């Protein structure tokens, strides 16, 4: 059935743009979730009232929360698919994260509310009446939630939606919590042990924890996460295809939503190229990135003078010095400018500093300058220290 829904959606939204296709899949997911969660919530509320089980009531209201989550999913995908406007030039795709944020807050609130209810039930236990109908509904709930988990996960992977992947996790947690409730019912029936309050406490804690983790995840998305290693590797592999360039460095990636990814990179080219040739190559790279990866790339041209032996000697000396510290540092973005009135040369370069290196930039600057002047006493340096660097540098001028 899941494959049938995905295939139907693929055919229906095949001719649409990526963001519109994403909206279509999101709406299908939201409607399916809304219908199934409404049915589950109604059944669980009914058997919760009939049985007097606080853990079943907690699970029922969790299903009510899932219903609101489905509504927020529908709204989120609908708004995130809106075209860019003057107030939002990068589009509205981050609204998907905002809807996920509200879902997280709702989960956290429900968890805290039932934490209190379960505590009261532990202090004053009440008999739980479990019938065959209750057991059937709980088992049916587990089956539906398992189906929802696979459904959301498949579509979430299909359109790369963190919101749907988080919803899939929420459905799987519902499977675990309902299974725990079913276990407490069996324990109560077989041994007359009333552990309903304790199971309700477990359910409440699990819901609260899930809400907190989802809240943290979507908050990070809104603040701007570091790109995943897979994204960096994919873009690096794409750049390595262009054998006409000398290398590249300073890859920066900015995400404004799943289909609104922007990146910048420094492309090292032969300084003997004409401007027309350089522009042609850069345009080709930017077009290919948009077509193949759906990434809007902006390239900065970094001309390299391969024939200047003096410059090459300076650069080799810098690489030798940096490597000699054995601190895991490397350099890129090397440039040499003549100072006015033949007063020497200004050497500019970047040094990539490992994340946990316990040495200040000022101390590194002094040490590098002192060591470099042993070889070239007349040069001045301008060093930029890169922290939290993304990706790797490629090319003859990188070490």
The total of beta strands comes to: 6
Could you say what the CATH topology of the largest domain is called?
A: Alpha-lytic protease prodomain-like
Order of helices and strands: HHHHHHHHEEHEHEEHE
Give the N-to-C terminal Cα separation: 53 Å
Low-pLDDT parts are none
Round the Cα radius of gyration to an integer and report it: 29 Å
Mean pLDDT score: 81
Strand content: 5-15%
> Would you state the CATH class of the largest domain?
Mainly Alpha
How would a textbook summarize the main sheet? 3 strands, mixed
Can you name the CATH architecture of the largest domain? Answer: Up-down Bundle
| Strand order of the biggest β-sheet | 1-2-3
Number of helices: 11
Category by helix and strand content: alpha/beta
Specify the oligomeric state: single chain
Overall body shape: elongated
Query: How many structural domains in the coordinates?
Result: 3
- The residue fraction in helices comes out at 55-70%
CATH H level, superfamily name of the largest domain: Cation efflux protein transmembrane domain
Essential attributes:
3-stranded mixed β-sheet; Alpha-lytic protease prodomain-like; 399 residues; 11 helices; 3 domains; Alpha-Beta Plaits; 14% strand; 6 strands; alpha/beta
Q: Helices and strands in order, then pairings?
A:
Elements: H1 2-12, H2 18-51, H3 54-80, H4 95-123, H5 132-159, H6 162-191, H7 196-223, H8 229-239, E1 247-255, E2 261-270, H9 275-293, E3 295-304, H10 309-324, E4 330-338, E5 345-352, H11 361-373, E6 379-386
Parallel strand pairs: 2-3, 5-6
Antiparallel strand pairs: 1-2, 4-5
Helix pairs in contact: 1-2, 2-3, 2-5, 3-4, 3-6, 3-7, 4-7, 5-6, 6-7
């Amino acid at each position: 059935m899941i494959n049938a829904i995905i295939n139907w959606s693929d055919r229906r939204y095949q001719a649409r743009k990526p963001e519109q296709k994403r909206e279509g899949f999101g709406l299908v997911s939201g409607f399916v979730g809304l219908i199934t969660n409404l049915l589950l919530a109604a059944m669980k509320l009914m058997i919760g009232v009939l049985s007097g089980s606080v853990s079943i009531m907690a699970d029922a209201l969790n299903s009510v929360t899932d219903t609101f989550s489905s509504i927020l999913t529908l709204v989120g995908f609908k708004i995130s698919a809106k075209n860019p406007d003057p107030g939002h030039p990068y589009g509205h795709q981050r609204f998907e994260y905002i809807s996920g944020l509200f879902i997280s807050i709702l989960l956290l609130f429900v968890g805290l509310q039932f934490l209190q209810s379960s505590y009261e039930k532990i202090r004053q236990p009440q008999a739980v009446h479990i019938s065959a109908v209750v057991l059937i509904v709980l088992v049916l709930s587990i089956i539906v939630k398992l189906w929802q988990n696979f459904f959301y996960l498949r579509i979430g992977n299909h359109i790369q939606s963190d919101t749907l992947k988080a919803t899939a996790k929420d459905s799987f947690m519902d499977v675990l919590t309902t299974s725990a409730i079913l276990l407490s019912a069996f324990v109560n029936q077989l041994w007359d042990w009333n552990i309903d309050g304790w199971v309700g406490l477990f359910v409440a804690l699990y819901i609260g924890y899930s809400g907190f983790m989802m809240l943290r995840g979507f908050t990070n998305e809104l603040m701007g996460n570091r790109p995943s290693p897979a994204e960096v590797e994919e873009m690096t592999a794409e750049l390595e295809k262009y054998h006409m360039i000398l290398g590249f460095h300073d890859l920066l990636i900015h995400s404004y939503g799943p289909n609104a990814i922007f990146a910048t990179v420094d492309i090292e080219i032969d300084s003997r190229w004409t401007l027309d040739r350089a522009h042609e190559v850069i345009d080709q790279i930017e077009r290919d990135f948009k077509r193949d990866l759906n990434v809007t790339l902006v390239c900065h041209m970094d001309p390299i003078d391969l024939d200047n032996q003096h410059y090459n000697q300076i650069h080799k000396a810098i690489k030798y010095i940096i490597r000699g510290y054995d601190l895991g540092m490397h350099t890129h973005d090397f440039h040499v400018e003549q100072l006015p009135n033949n007063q020497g040369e200004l050497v500019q370069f970047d040094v990539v500093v490992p994340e946990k290196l316990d040495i200040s930039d000022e101390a590194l600057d002094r040490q590098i300058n002192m060591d470099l002047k042993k070889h070239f006493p007349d040069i001045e340096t301008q060093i930029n220290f890169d922290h939290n660097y993304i990706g790797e540098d490629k090319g003859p001028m990188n070490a």
